[in-house]
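User: ok so my PI wants both of these folded by tonight, can you help

Assistant: No problem, let's get them done. Here's the first:
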Amino acid sequence: MIDFMVPTGRESFGQAFVEALAAGKVVMTDPETGAVFGRGVIASRPDDVDAAVERLIADPAAHAAQAAHGQAALDGFSAAAFAVRLKALIGAALRARAA
C-alpha cells in the first residue's frame, strides 16, 4: 500500500532500495546514494521531497514511468550483469599480465 520509499539516512547501496524498486515503488534518496541507481531512483535533497511526491501523485503516468525506471535499474545488479562485469575484469587482468 506504500507508493514511495524515502529513507531518512544515507546508505551506500541499500538492500531495502532494491526490494522497494523490485516491488514497483518509487525511491527517493540523496544524490550520492542515488548515483548508484541512476534513473532508477529520484535523487533529491530533503527540502525537495514533498514537491516531488506531490508531482508524482498528481501525475500517475509519471509515477508509473519512474517505477518502471526503478525496476529497469535492477537489471544492472543481476547475476548476469555481474558475470559480464567479472568476465571483463578477469579479461583485462589477463591482458595486462600478458603485456
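One down. Here's the second:
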Amino acid sequence: MAGSGVDGILRGLWRLGPGGRAGGGLGTRRALRRLRSRCRDRWALLTTGTARERGMSTAEYAVGTIAACAFAALLFKVVTSPEVQEMITSLINRALKVAG
C-alpha cells in the first residue's frame, strides 16, 4: 500500500505537524500512526468483505442449482409414472374430441 492515496495524504500530514508547521511533534506522530492503522484495518475489512460475499453467492448458486436439479428429477419421476401418463393421455384425447 506504499503508493496509495491514503499513504500519501498521511505522509503529507506527518510532515506538516500541528498548526501547519513542518516537523510534527511526538503526539502528532502517534495520532497519525493510529489513524494510519485504522485506515489500513478498515481497508482490509472492506477488501476482504467483498471476497467473502463473492464466495457466499457462489455457494448460494451451487445450493440453488442442486435444489433445482432435485426438483427436476422429482418432477420427471411424477410425470413418467403410469397414473400421470394415463391422465395426460385422457386429457389430450378429450381435447381432440371437443376440437374435432
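The mean pLDDT is 76. Helices lie at 5-16, 26-79, 82-99. Good luck tonight!
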